[in-house]
Amino acid sequence: MSKKKDPMQQMVDKLNQITGSASAAIDELRQGRSVAKPGETPDTLEDKAAIQTDFAAVKNELLAELATARTELISEITTARSDMIDKIANGRTELEDQALAIQNQLADKLASIRTLIDKEDQPG
């Protein structure tokens, strides 16, 4: 029987995954910008421009993923907060109902006791 992951933990896992993807993409792009070794020619301007374009595309993709994850996380937090407020309100209503029922029971018992006392006080 598998346990369903907490929505907050799912979002943290997703953000960690995105961060890992970002790190891997950045490392991959940086490898393309390595300094020329003896006997090699340095990257041409076109290569550097292509690398910068790739880097910008990856950056934009990661920013979009982070924005989506942020929106989902805010939605989850808002839903969880709303659920908690509802539970608290429902619990409060139930407690108020129980308190009112107890108050009515005590009032009925007090009325019964007064009736008994009144009967005993009457000459008879």
Describe the structure.
The structure is a single chain. The chain has 124 residues and is an all-alpha fold. The chain has one domain. The protein is 82% helix and 0% strand. The protein has two helices and no strands. The longest helix is centred in the C-terminal third of the chain and has 77 residues. It is rod-shaped. The N and C termini lie far apart (75 Å). The mean pLDDT is 80.
Quick take:
This protein is an all-alpha fold and 124 residues long. The chain is built from two helices and no strands.
- The secondary structure category is mainly alpha
The amount of helix comes to: over 70%
Overall, the morphology is: rod-shaped
Number of domains: 1
Beta-strand percent range:
under 5%
Instruction: Give, in order, the helices and strands.
Output: HH
- Give the beta-strand count: 0
What features would you highlight for this structure?
single chain; 124 residues; mainly alpha; 2 helices; 82% helix; rod-shaped
List the SSEs and their pairings:
Elements lengths: L6 H25 L13 H77 L3
Helix pairs in contact: 1-2
